[in-house]
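chain below, 411 aa
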Amino acid sequence: MLQSKLFCKTKKTAPKDAEVISHKYLTRGDFIEQSLSGVYRFLPLGLRVLKNIEGIIREEMLILGAQELYLPAFQNKSLWLETGRWETIDPPLFKLKDRHEKETALGSTHEEEITDIFRGRIKSYQDLPLYVFQIQNKFRNEMRYSGGLLRVREFLMKDLYSFHSNEQDLNKFYEKVKKSYFNIFKRCGLNPICVEASSGTIGGELSNEFMVPSLVGEDRVLICQKCGFAANIEKTGEIKSCPKCKGQLEKNNCIEVGHIFNLGTKYTQTMKAEYLDEKGKNHFPLMGCYGIGLHRLMATIVEMNNDEKGIIWPEEVTPFLTHLIQIENTAKVKKIAQSIYEDLQKKGIEVLYDDRDKSAGEKFVEADLIGIPFRVLVSERTLKENCIEIKNRDKKEAKLVKIKDLPKFLC
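prediction:
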């Protein structure tokens, strides 16, 4: 991508209401823009990052053996009345009426929808277990919206749902999902902890959250310094010692980046979703659900990967792997920079080529703000030695590299 053609207008200052780093840098870098309170537009750079995160999650879901589907944002009131959550879910639903005065809701979660699909198709134990997932917009009628993408009303979410014939099989898959989540977060440049959590209005017998310790986090987590036990205060209350080893508990602010639930038969029994076992007897399948909010995950990546100059994107989520910058618009510099640009593209390396007629200082400030992992500089000085200058975004020192050797440092 030529930077002269990129639809991106960076800003020198952040919005007045931006308090956290991710909100400041994502808006200044023109990754996102607020449309209305708690609702954001994703501009080209931001969408590239979001799509990369989505790709990582989809890849890990497919490894689990899950099949992808897509469920509607508009949801049938009758399904929510079946489970009793039409009036009780928290945050409450966004409800609206169509021109026929029929009431529907914008989906904040999809347990009712997926259970309805299941009961219309699965009748035998031979069809279990079943794993399905979607990546789709959700709508949460939050009381307040804060921290940019950390707490919003509309956001992209991955839902994975599983159905099982027995507790052992559900527990086994539940543990597989835990490992999958750790893989996802590691690939996104994060190192969360898995904590015991409250199931809230989603319900179920057991739930765990994946928490990233951060001063800007709104969740409070108790962590044992001796055995590693961890739990959300919502789950355990203000206990003074570890329930497992009696060790000292330390209170930490955290950002929740994922939440998984063992739902048991909460939805299948309520909605009468049954299957027949090998003896012809009816049973309610056990169910699990597993969520990741992509908008919050993107913000958390920035919260944990930045410096005083801007974002430092991990390689798997960055909008481009390489930021190619030409200094001095001489014919020689332009020719070599263009050649490098074309060669990197042929090798499948995503590159943003700053071909604009701007000062070196302006280009470097924008490059640091945007946070692409590798900066490749072409100038008259470097070409005197038949080299280019390469610098990792998270390092202070740059080094000269022979032009022909550049791909080795990027692949």
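The chain has a mean pLDDT of 96. The domain at 322-410 is CATH 3.40.50.800 (Rossmann fold).
thats it, cya
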